Amino acid sequence: MGTTTPPRTLAEALRARGDESLAGLLRARPDLLSPVPNDITQLATRAGTRASVVRALEHLDRFALQTAEALAVAPDPAPYDTLLALLTGDGQDDGDGRDDAGAAITAALPAALTTLREQALVWGEDTRLHLVRTARELLAPSPQHPSPTGLGPTVSEATAGMSPGRLQEILTAAGLPATHDPVSAVSALAGLFTDRTRMAQLLDTAPVEALSVLDRLVWGPPYGEVTPNPAPPVQWLRDRGLLLPVSTRTVVLPREAALHLRAGRAHRVPEPVPPVIVAAAERDPQAVDRAAAGQGFMALSTVEELLKLWNDGGPAILRAGGLSVRELKRAASALDVSETVAAFWIELAYAAGLLASDGETDERYAPTPASDEWLDLPAQDRWTHLATAWLAATRTAGLIGGQDAKGRALSALGPDLDRSAAPEVRRRVLALFASLPPGTAPDPQTLLARLRWERPLRSSIPGGPTGEASDLRSRIALWTVNDAELLGITGRGALSSQARALLDEGPDAAAARLAPLIPEPLDHVLLQADLTAVAPGPLERPLADMLSVLADVESKGGATVYRFTPGSVRRALDAGQAATDLHAFLATHSRTPVPQPLSYLIDDVARRHGHLRIGAASAYVRCDDEAVLNEILADKRSATLRLRRLAPTVLASQADPGSLLEGLREMGYAPAAESAEGDVLITRAGARRTPPRTPPAPVPEGPPVPDATLLSAAVRAIRAGDTAARAVHKEGPDTATAGSLPRTAPAETLATVQAAAMTGSAVWIGYVNADGAASQRVIAPVKVEGGFVTAYDHTADEVRTYPLHRITGVAELADEQTP
């Protein structure tokens, strides 16, 4: 502790710590730094607030939490041996049939106690261990919040307010000497319950049914309901104080009696050692890397296809935000995946900054300008960009399809999908994967058991989050296992070497590991006579972009099959390509001769393309061939277009140009849109982009962990503020007591600081800054002029200038306190 005098308060215990220990506390509990405490006393006060203690308890592992729970039911203060006995038991048989893990508990307890001390949840020497009061209130038993240990109140607490006559009846029934002193009566009853020999003799006389009642209450909850006329076994227990009244219909098993029945243990199953992660399978590490690389490449292809799908402007945004169920189904069908997987890819592209809202009046989702830069990157760099965005994202795609706290459906890209625990859980899951030998696939259930041990369910802490939050970590962990396989972080259930490099060394190292495993893009396809083209591997981007316009994807896998149709050829012509360009493109990039049916298809569609011209009247159709217009008017399918002839070569329609264009295409024609000047409008793919957008910022879980520089500065400021707060000053008629702001008249303040500047001595001042925050400081004035005092501030460890009108008062330090 750094002192021979035991600390009397948490503040004294913190004051005795070294700077490194204080920095460790602030690192473990960064909420204590918002704002930086003025002194040690304020730090101790803030460390004991309910919100801060709950947050600290939530970050304890299972055994550290069990240690705190044992201290909550132990006397305050508790010796180390008492704490150890509550965790290991007294060595007697409790009838539970379980071997004690006494050696493991004895070995693990010092580390758990050190953790609690470092986080300022426990203070004091081993002979006098104190659990901070707020933690004791959270973990101690009460009817409203039963203890996590399942223990009830002590005999003293349960008998508070009981009449002396009733106490005498209990003592007599239990075979104890009568006494008229209530305190002595309570002590005698508690002494009976803690004496194993006498307690065993008492229970030997109990009815079998009474022992069954105790068995139901011993491990909690210790409360039970009784009728006005209880059964004889229950009455036997009530008469002897083994069940004490809480209300007219509720009784409780006192803590001392429960501990006897438990053989002294506070917990039924202490867990001093973390669960072992069991290997589900052993894989060849190289096969794992290849499988992960293949899945990673498929991930890139899927995201690219999603961007192409929304190239011309994606789906509209719901009024409440997000994507409609119908649009999600449409995207899933286009990507040939389930809706759950489609939601994951959409959210990942959004988190990576590749998709966003266009911000228009008719707001829609569309690719961002950053998506074009991403598409130009090498495949390995594109993968690390996605993987890094996934690791840091707090948006949780697994929640999509569920409901929020108000019963509203959670939609893809909608609000309320941020879960601040997600990044920490993802990294912890992958760290557990990495702790296994390369190629080892862990069993998911043992993985979850380990995570629950490291962060017990929050519902175990009364007053902590409940509902979804109580099991959220487990759900995120399972989603992480699935998402990691989809993204290529894992392969065949085991962590890949490129993912290990990403976690340990960063994106550049991961890209270097992944590059040799990704196939080189090809510059050719194989054309077939059935109007299809086979791509035997990934294609170079210009070839892939052009082919995606000229043909439709028919199937995917190791090879991609494209099919040429009249509609796909017309799409290429609409994009500004001529028939000669298409023939040249296919001849250049095909390793097989261009089939004659494909050449005929291109020429036939090109011959009819643009023969009809559509413009805005509302809309019109013009054609130099009157017979074609006659054919359209005679076709019954054109009735919905409401056409009428304006001239031999012109038809007018009440439909808009887009609807007219699509209607005639459905009838088998190949019309082209034209501008007001009569020129053919060319529709180029990928023309719609959002304005520059930044990816969604992750929502942090609590304050960020401070860096070493901030921690060092904060510790110095707290130490200096503590020195100022506890400084001993010379008493004067207008000075305040130590620890409060000094108060002096302005003239006396000026005279005192001038004298200190001349003599080079330090003084103690009270100062109120521009925000109205008051503080105490120890300064050594250097210069006083113009209404300001320039001084070396021992509190801040730097030279500062203070306006004299903001100094509330000044006092000279006692000689032995002068810095």
Textual characterization of the structure:
This protein is an alpha+beta fold. It has 33 helices and 25 strands. Helix 10 runs parallel beside helix 11 and helix 27 crosses helix 29. About 3% of the residues have low confidence.
List its traits.
819 residues, alpha+beta, five-stranded mixed β-sheet
Describe this structure in a few short sentences.
By secondary structure, the chain is an alpha+beta fold. It is built from 33 helices and 25 strands. The chain starts with 9 loop residues before the first helix and ends in a 7-residue tail after the last strand.
Topology diagram in text:
Elements: H1 10-15, H2 19-28, H3 40-47, H4 50-58, H5 62-73, H6 80-88, H7 102-118, E1 122-123, E2 130-131, H8 133-139, H9 155-158, H10 164-173, H11 182-194, H12 196-204, H13 208-217, E3 223-225, H14 232-239, E4 244-245, E5 250-252, H15 255-261, E6 279-282, H16 285-309, H17 325-335, H18 339-351, E7 355-357, E8 365-367, H19 369-375, H20 379-392, H21 422-434, E9 440-442, H22 444-454, H23 468-487, E10 490-491, E11 494-495, H24 497-504, H25 507-514, E12 526-528, E13 532-535, H26 541-550, E14 552-555, E15 560-563, H27 566-574, H28 579-589, H29 596-608, E16 613-615, E17 619-622, H30 626-634, E18 643-647, E19 650-653, H31 657-666, E20 672-673, H32 708-725, H33 746-759, E21 763-768, E22 774-785, E23 788-793, E24 798-803, E25 807-812
Parallel strand pairs: 16-20
Antiparallel strand pairs: 1-2, 3-5, 4-5, 6-9, 7-8, 10-11, 12-13, 13-15, 14-15, 16-17, 17-19, 18-19, 21-22, 21-25, 22-23, 23-24
Helix pairs in contact: 2-32, 5-7, 5-8, 10-11, 13-14, 17-18, 20-25, 21-23, 22-23, 24-25, 27-29
